[in-house]
Amino acid sequence: MHAVEVRDHIMIAHSFSGEVFGPAQKLHGATFVVDAAFFAQSLDANGIVIDIGRAHEVLKEVLTPLNFQNLDELPEFAGKNTTTEFLTRHIHDRLAEAARADRLGRPGSELHSIRVSLHESHVARAWYEAPIA
Amino acid sequence: MHAVEVRDHIMIAHSFSGEVFGPAQKLHGATFVVDAAFFAQSLDANGIVIDIGRAHEVLKEVLTPLNFQNLDELPEFAGKNTTTEFLTRHIHDRLAEAARADRLGRPGSELHSIRVSLHESHVARAWYEAPIA
Amino acid sequence: MHAVEVRDHIMIAHSFSGEVFGPAQKLHGATFVVDAAFFAQSLDANGIVIDIGRAHEVLKEVLTPLNFQNLDELPEFAGKNTTTEFLTRHIHDRLAEAARADRLGRPGSELHSIRVSLHESHVARAWYEAPIA
Amino acid sequence: MHAVEVRDHIMIAHSFSGEVFGPAQKLHGATFVVDAAFFAQSLDANGIVIDIGRAHEVLKEVLTPLNFQNLDELPEFAGKNTTTEFLTRHIHDRLAEAARADRLGRPGSELHSIRVSLHESHVARAWYEAPIA
Amino acid sequence: MHAVEVRDHIMIAHSFSGEVFGPAQKLHGATFVVDAAFFAQSLDANGIVIDIGRAHEVLKEVLTPLNFQNLDELPEFAGKNTTTEFLTRHIHDRLAEAARADRLGRPGSELHSIRVSLHESHVARAWYEAPIA
Amino acid sequence: MHAVEVRDHIMIAHSFSGEVFGPAQKLHGATFVVDAAFFAQSLDANGIVIDIGRAHEVLKEVLTPLNFQNLDELPEFAGKNTTTEFLTRHIHDRLAEAARADRLGRPGSELHSIRVSLHESHVARAWYEAPIA
Question: Distance between CA D10 and CA D32 in Å, rounded?
Fold first, then answer.
């Protein structure tokens, strides 16, 4: 299996609901350094997994509506805990849509899966990996 | 698949038995930066894989008996080479016990697997990944 | 010149006032990975710059009132932009007070200066360095 | 599953053919920091996946013919785009040959797979993972 | 002293003249991860060293003419060895010009110095630091 | 001021004397990732601070007598606490001797100073910087 991974980041505010979160129930924030990995069983005729330039662009496009936001105020996240884990899946699903729409410089049907990793500090990170189809 | 990973470290002394180890047959030591990743097929009602605070605590608890020790003198390791690989599994198995005992803020039966990575320098690391059940 | 540096982190929310901040004028947040470096011209009789255990504790103590907070709501920061640069100095000054109070396992008069670095993402960081006296 | 990973690097020049590459169609270059991970289902009698010293040597041996080269001029790559993805597989296949030839301090039949990762900058990397057999 | 540092990167080809360079006398290449640090004695009224957005833009602007180039073919570098050290100074001097031209969101006269670091691999880097005036 | 920095590492065992060291009074060990930075006011005719190949060799030569050793048993360290800080200076002084002996591919008189950094974990490091003369 081949993979290509690109990196970007967002800075957001949010709060959590549930005793398990302790002090993180208060409004606080995070920098998430985001790695998006695209997997394919084989390379295309150019010798690439995807167009890495487009991967950077699509990742930026997916992150922009989140960047510099208070996630507690975004309607699409109403009633949800926007945990690191939740956000890995949210970003994954937007990237998978872009892949299926052939927006990564290669037919989405030639790609296998996507893994999105969010690094929240030097001692904690989370990721979500799932097929594109 | 979802994953959450937490980081800690230990500083230990040990020696190895076997010509393959060359100069590492002498008593020497290592800092191991330890990453413990917990995998689950789905998030719980709070939107998390595990309680990350408990994950940090349980990892610390597993590492404490090793930290600042000469591993050659620990009875449980008698007759063993406490290689980086060996230690990844040792730590994995202790963490898996904690998971099965429901000590990570979620029933162990809802977790899938654990991967323990030990970084021994800027040019070498090892990891062990296996199901919890 | 000798130096010892320890690392910790905080996760905070805040907003900025001023057009220069663009989208960061909205409430957002950040993870700051914090490095605190302590400088001394010479080592003490134990062969150390400071007691590294106490340095970790004092850094934690200085960071705790900030961690998981909305800095916009803290009275001591009223009317201030809590920029990365501002926070490097705030943390520096609290650490320098602890040093002068001989709380680092060595008389503050034997220490020279402190540098506090805040990493806000994989592409940006800031630091402040000044004498302790 | 156990794994051991070693790191080295190469500095090369090359150019690409195909509009997808944009400015990278011109002769340019890259530092590739190379991670080679070796996987095995179990440890040998010494408690290791492979002889890590030999792993470093074999990786160096595989990288040397590429290091400080203009890859456009190497006959074996004629007509190919030596993309990061292509090189992950090239290096993988040379390492797998070494593994099958029992050159890693353990019978190749006891090893499972190899993953080769090339870090091309702080925001992009690629890898290839496949069985040894 | 305060500082703010931003990161970007370039991928270039070049060759060196002189026996000291050994195999690097051949055409090869490098990824340089570039850190540009801006120093100031005090913060401005907004609480910043410089406008970090402009710092990223100016750094990008300085790097663009180098990126994806064979430096051996650039007229301005004719007869020069474009070593890592040489490039740190080249980039520094372009950034200092931008600072003196008040292009960093703050009068250049309020800034003190600039340090440019180029990371060429995981085991080697160089930097150049000098006043702006 | 120009600088070039190279990286290597050692793995050692040792123990400390003194209550300040707590559990580190027991025999334990560490991986030290070692950065050696060489400073010069100007570049030589080749456009370099030093011959980076020789810098790597000299650093390796200085580290070899320490690597895979129990530092408690080395006669030259008898009665000393081989703290991270102590070792930064020990390595510095050996590198400065090599610089003064013109062993870095440039007359030592053309070099200014050396800084040696030891990273002992992901949360702690120390360094020592002093002139060569």
Answer: 5
Question: Do chains A and E touch, with touching meaning 3 or more CB–CB pairs less than 8 Å apart?
Answer: no
Low-confidence ranges of chain D (pLDDT < 70): none
Angle between helices E52-63 and E84-100 (to 10 degrees): 130
Do F and D make contact, counting contact as 3+ CB pairs within 8 angstroms?
no
Query: Cα angle vertex B18, ends B17, B19, to 5°?
Result: 135
Q: Which residues in chain E are closer than 8 Å to F47, comparing Cβ atoms?
A: 80-83, 85-86
Q: Would you state the pLDDT for residue D133?
A: 85
User: What is the average pLDDT value for chain E, to the nearest integer?
Assistant: 98
Task: Evaluate whether F6 touches F93 at the Cβ level (below 8 Å).
Answer: no
Interface test with F, best of C8, C50, C52 (most F CBs within 10 A): C52
pLDDT band at E133 (very low <50, low <70, confident <90, very high): confident
Three-state secondary structure along E51-116? CHHHHHHHHHHHHCCCCCCEHHHCHHHCCCCCCHHHHHHHHHHHHHHHHHCCCCCCCHHHCCEEEE
What mean pLDDT comes out for the span E36-57?
A: 98
Please say if the pLDDT value at position F59 is more than 90.
Answer: yes
- As given in the structure block, the two tokens for residue E80 are 């020069």
Mean pLDDT for chain A overall: 98
8 Å CB contact of D46 and B20 = yes
Residues D56 and B22: their CA atoms lie apart, in Å, by: 14
Q: Which of E67, E57, E63 is nearest to E103 (CA)?
A: E57
How confident is the model over B24-36, as pLDDT tens digits? 999 999 999 999 9
Token representation of residue C36: 């605190």
H or E stretch covering B99: helix B84-100
Taking the CB of residue F119, how many other CB atoms lie within 10 A of it?
Answer: 23
Q: Looking at beta carbons, which residues of chain F come within 8 Å of C7?
A: 122-124
Q: DSSP for A32-84, please give it.
A: EEEEEEEEESS--TTS-SS-HHHHHHHHHHHHTTTTT-BGGG-GGGTTS---H
Enumerate chain A positions whose Cβ falls within 8 A of a Cβ in D: 1-8, 43, 46-49, 51-53, 56, 105
Q: Which residues contact B75 (CB under 8 A, 6 or more apart)?
A: none
CA distance E91 to E102: 17
Find the residue in E nearest to C124 (Cα). Answer: E6
pLDDT in tens, chain B (133 residues): 999 999 999 999 999 999 999 999 999 999 999 999 999 999 999 999 999 999 999 999 999 999 999 999 999 999 999 999 999 999 999 999 999 999 999 999 999 999 999 999 999 999 999 999 8
Which residues on chain B are in Cβ contact (under 8 Å) with E121? none
Contact (CB, 8 A) for F104 and F51: yes
What residue in E sits closest to C21 (Cα-Cα)? E51
pLDDT per residue as tens digits for the range F17-38? 999 999 999 999 999 999 999 9
Per-residue pLDDT of D104-115, as tens digits, reads: 999 999 999 999
* 8 Å CB contact of C126 and E49: yes
Report d(CA B66, CA B60) in Å as an integer.
10
Which member of A16, A85, A122 has the closest CB to residue B49? Answer: A85
Using beta carbons and an 8 Å cutoff, which residues of B are at the interface with D?
16, 18, 20-22, 80-86, 88-89, 122-130
Q: Which of C116, C130, C127 is nearest to E3 (CA)?
A: C127
Give the alpha-carbon dihedral of D61, D63, D69, D72, to 10 degrees. Answer: 120
F-chain CB neighbours of A123 within 8 Å are 122
Mutate to test the interface with B, among D8, D38, D43 (most CBs of B within 10 A): D43
Per-residue pLDDT band for C133 (boundaries 50, 70, 90) equals: confident
Chain D residues within 8 angstroms (CB to CB) of chain C: 122-123
